[in-house]
User: Fold this.
Amino acid sequence: MENFAQISKQRWTSGFIGLSAALMAVLCANIFLGSVKIDFSQALHIIMSGDDASTLGTILWKIRIPRALASAMGGAYLAIAGLLLQVYFRNPVVGPYILGISSGATLMVSVVMLTSLQLGLTQIAPYLTTLAAFAGAYGAMMLVLAAAAKIRQGVTLLILGLMIGYLCHAVTSILVAFAEKEQVKGFVLWQLGSFSGFHQSEIYILFFGGGAVAFGVYLLSKPLNAFLLGEEYAASMGVNIRLFRILILLAACALAGMVTGMAGPVAFIGLAVPHMARLVFRTSDNNVLAPGAALLGAVVTGVCDLLARLLFSPVELPISAITAFFGAPIVIGLLLRRRVVS
Amino acid sequence: MNGKPDAAIFTQDLCVGYGNKEVLYGLDLSFPPGTFTALLGPNGAGKTTLLRTLARLLPPVRGKILLQGKNLYDYSASALAKRLSVVLTEKVNPGVFSVFEFVSLGRHPHTGFMGRLSGRDLDVVRECLEWVKAADLAHRQMGELSDGERQKVSIARALAQEPEIILLDEPTMHLDLKHRMEVMGILRQLCREKGLAVAASLHDVDVAARVSDMAVCVAKGREARSGPTEQVLSENRVAELYEFEGASYDASLCTLEMRPKASREKVFVNSGMGSGAGLFRLLSKHGFSLAAGVVHANDLDCFVASAIGADCFIQSPQEPVGGDSLDNALKSALQADLIVDAGYEIGPANQNNIRLIQAALSAHKSVFSLRSKEDAQTIYGKDSSSMILCNSSTELLEKLLAASRPGLHGE
Assistant:
């Protein structure tokens, strides 16, 4: 028994070390590689000196570093949100967008991007899309939380989330039908997500706000584990179900909403990374899985963003295209080999 | 039954149901430590509803539930989890967990904020696995277990909460015979040796009668009955509880017998000392209508024949076969179409039974016997030449079926 536990512990430790190293490597790659070639030594010098005034300095400090950090944090938070909802709904095909968060964000963004509403708001125009996405994502979250306080069954909530999604899509489609071609292209690209153009303030929000929520999730890993047995067993083991349900949904929506607001909907990460983490760590113990999925999400998203930038450089691909195109076959392959679903 | 103050759980005028819909009402139950209580009743009677209410997973419609003398709803969630645990019917699929890790989840109410397991926690988990005889499963993955193993492990998880009462919803559902017996054995042991109060809803009355100390019978629209199993599970009450048609329950043997509708002629079976029990079932299964005699009231044949619904001619155990019983049996045998001699040992108490067969032979009835040729000759003399001798009950059945004309005599 001890021996067995030790083997698991070793696997976990090596998993964490390996993933941390991979994350460092991906961050470096994202900073040093790009369409504009910068010498390694030169880049190192610019970073060390903190020079952000020169052209290369601007590229590194204002573009690449924020983007590398944003993709890592965004991926980590989406993975955590996905893990939370998969545990809560006890359903392996659930992702962070199942509750209508991306649909809500998309709806609000379509309103500002596809109508002439923005004409009167030139003052906040640069932030308008982000603000709209936030409003949409958290609006959908409020709806879901209000419903969760009344609805007892998880499945009902799931269906409600899907319905909210369909409703939002319906309105979005109508707006698309009436919109002009140019606007539609911009909107479609937004829908596929991108980690480009993150402001420093957004990075801070992601780091401190998201970090706090993610740490909170880690603290919830004990009741999360109890939840793996289902709501009734969790209740019978002393979990305060009502409080806990609200906390899970709040944390998942807050994380997914934050990332969606800033980067747009990023497909696949939230759904697939928890599965990949289970395969890497070979456990469903959320004490291990929550940090594990976060690290893995950061690595996977970082790699995908790197590919999105470099594959057809200087043309940049939408991040969702890469995550799904390369990620889905990997997950299918892993699942077929190990037959681990939940 | 009267609630004792030391009862693990004690209910007062409890009414359970969903919302305002009452399913069971007027429940005054008590679950003392060290006793096994079986909840019995037909599907949909409210066994699960009652268990869920006792486990605080469902609020009672009205009435009181006291856990160790204190209102169930006055406990904090984790204080309750340290006293009461459940095993539900829902098949748990926790994901990628070893059995040991899974059982450790039961330590939830005892561990700290992050759920780290102390040395004592590990000891308890190990002990719980030993209680359910699953120590050898500790390393296995949950996904690899059979239903029976999974159920044992589920019980270990419930035990890991170190409760004083365990509530189980149909713990033997979907299990094979070996595991069914093993699980019941484990639950009994937990009552006897660990002093737990165990309450389980069960479908098998016969199993319940053998393992439970107390029984609670619930049926829709009727008052629940509870008390010592031996008192509660009488023949009539069991038949009434499940609204038996074409089946019966024998309380002294704890067995259920089918009573299929007869579709063939009457067979009179002359048996004794257990020689007929198997035959009665065999023949009744194939649609023969049965008469049995003369059997002593303490003979196994008598229990089985009555349970199966045969016309029985019964003699008091103190008397040798004779008198009214024999006269009535004679009449019945002569009216029957086929006669069977089960081939029992003849002694002073039952030697008059020979007269039944002899009478049938002289009336030129078809008489089938399981005796050997010599044996038949010694007992019945030269009349035995017209007897149809069979080596086994299978052969007997074949010959009876050949002689039978179905439907003509059916009732």
Chain A has a mean pLDDT of 87.
